[in-house]
Specification:
Layout lengths: L2 E4 L27 H40 L6 H6 L4 H14 L3 H9 L12 H4 L3 H12 L8 H28 L2 H13 L1 H4 L9 H19 L6 H21 L3 H17 L5 H21 L4 H4 L2 H15 L8 H30 L5 H10 L8 H7 L10 H8 L2 H25 L4 H8 L7 H19 L4 H16 L2 H10 L5 H32 L2 E4 L1 H13 L5 E3 L2 H11 L2 E2 L8 H10 L8 H10 L4 E5 H4 L10 H8 L22 H4 L5 H4 L2 E6 L3 E6 L4
Parallel strand pairs: 3-4, 3-5
Antiparallel strand pairs: 1-2, 5-7, 6-7
Helix pairs in contact: 1-7, 1-8, 3-4, 3-6, 3-27, 7-8, 7-10, 7-23, 8-23, 8-25, 10-11, 10-22, 11-13, 12-13, 12-15, 12-22, 13-15, 15-16, 17-18, 20-23, 22-23, 24-25, 26-27
Amino acid sequence: MTTVRQRRVGKGTEAAEDQPSEETNVKPDGKIPSDHTGGKLWNILSITVGGIVAISLGLLTSVYVATLHENDLWFSNIKEVEREISFRTECGLYYSYYKQMIQAASIQQGLHGLVYDNKTESVRTINILERMNVYQEVFLSILYRILPIQQYLEPVYFYIYTLFGLQAVYVIALYVTSWLLSGTWLSGVLAACWYITNRVDTTRVEFTIPLRENWALPFFAVQIAAITYLLRTHLQPAQERLTLLVIFIATFLFSLTWQFNQFMMLIQALALFILDCLDMLPTAKVTWLYIIQISGLLLVCVLQFFNSMILGSLLISFNTSVLIARTIQKNLKKGGLLNRLGKLILHALLVLCLTLLINKCIKKILNLESDEHIFKFLKAKFGFGATRDFDANLYLCEEAFGLLPLNTFSRLSATLLFYIYLFVLLLLAVAAVIVAFRNLSGSNQVQLMEKMEECTITLKPDAAYSLVHTVLFGCLALSTMRMKYLWTSHMCVFASFGLCSTEVWKLLLKCVHLYTSQRAQVLKYSVPIITLVYISYKFWPGIMDELSELREFYDPDTVELMNWIKSSTPSTAVFAGSMQLLAGVKLCTGRTLTNHPHYEDKNLRERTKQIYQIYARRSAEAVHGILRSFGTDYVILEDSICYERRHRRGCRLRDLLDVANGHIMDGVGENEPDLKPSLYPRFCEEIKKNLPSYTTHFTRVFQNKTFHVYKLAKHK
């Protein structure tokens, strides 16, 4: 098991608003007074200073996470094999393709090795570029090979520094989004500070560097910033076209770097759909965003050799359905309140039915089953019946796919982020409900609108999008802890925007009959500054202590195992074991695997379930037959899995296998009535007794405190 141990030491300024003022002071002779020139210079100065601050905070964040990574592992001092072991589970698998491309004799040979790969899954040749999102590793490896940096920078540092550099892009994008929403870069400073001080809940890049989300989320943040700008009014055609281009590029890069992109963009498309139905966004811009999502995903599909999972995504079906339904129903935004509500309900039902129909047809035509485990997991998670499906239960029992822990909110509250977020969310949600009601009521409700205007303001399109975005992604985070990073980063943006927004303070002060423009301006700047002072005072010492704490990587058992494999087994040997460990075996030794952690393939999932019979109650002969059917030469057994205590009864890997096989589980507790005792003992325990029925098929060739390696007999 990988661990770390204690190291042994031998006044705010505003950006220019997009909307023109209602009145422009012009002299009778047509000349603009000198105040206009002074205002322009002030805006240029404000944008320049704000931009410099944004870049500085982004770079500081990048250096911060890089320093934490170095301090935690002593990465610069440990051996190459230890560095590679530190890329745990699927991280190691992804990094192995970067290493493979670097070590290839040529770029062409490296690409050929990925397109015709026979070492990731034994007795199968697969296309890595089709199955996995590893174009970023390909691009980086090519860049490393052609740049004159080999003698100055090791490949691993080029890789991790790129990821840490993307954190700078991420923070800058969050900063700009908040700035665009509020109109002041002070809001961006607050968003960046919250992102850093809530690092535990906003990112995990420092210890899961190659994870796909660490590549993708910076591009997603850039896309959201560009959408925020697009939704402003009075954009010039050239500005709008340039913004759409930025959105397309960011969407494409986000889709290219993460296999779960389609689900995140489906939530985004749902937000656009809701706001468009409520007449809170311009329909033409929403249509462009739908088209960009589809085209970006289809371009990725082409690059991934027409990956069927992309073609069968719900996003493509949903966006296509919305565009079709809108063509069929042309008068959605006409009529009174009840008339429009009826039309919208029919519209939503039509879109839902079309989405399911189109998606079903695509999957039927393509015989697509790659993502069925996700829907089985969702069905079981939300209580639509218990399941014995091994894959679904494997997800259900992982903490990362469980509900968001309550202690998350206590950590977010310590920085005041969660309290302010709820405050802003409540205010804007009330405003959104009122605005939506006014929009749906139609033009005949003028008096009602005027009455409501006394206590509220119109919600701008960019703020409305940000509100629905944070609500939907908040629901996702609450239901699935692993997805919290999509929510918490935007939470920083949303809370800082609300605290620095004139509109939000105007809304609040009007509702309590205390509104004056001077009060709104004072609160807009004073409250964020006080919040920043509080955060700095409370968390700066802790950050300094964190940066001064030195540890080092320590995992001697895994290091010993990898060194033994490299020195004592043929380079063509095939290894079986847990998905997580085998990813490290491929990275550190280059040996062929039977299975791996990239789970988005039905054949691989079935293969993994078969390989995992080494931890079930099966006979030696049956296990040997299964392993040899995949060409296995060696099998690695882990005590941490065989005698697992991390999960509760019913969620241990051996329990999932027992239930899937129809056997009763170990230990005290209830079992379902139709489960029966197995005729055989647990394989991973019984093999260590060296009984003749086991030694006939398996010979132990390596052992330490954590791992046991057995060589399989090759019977004719």
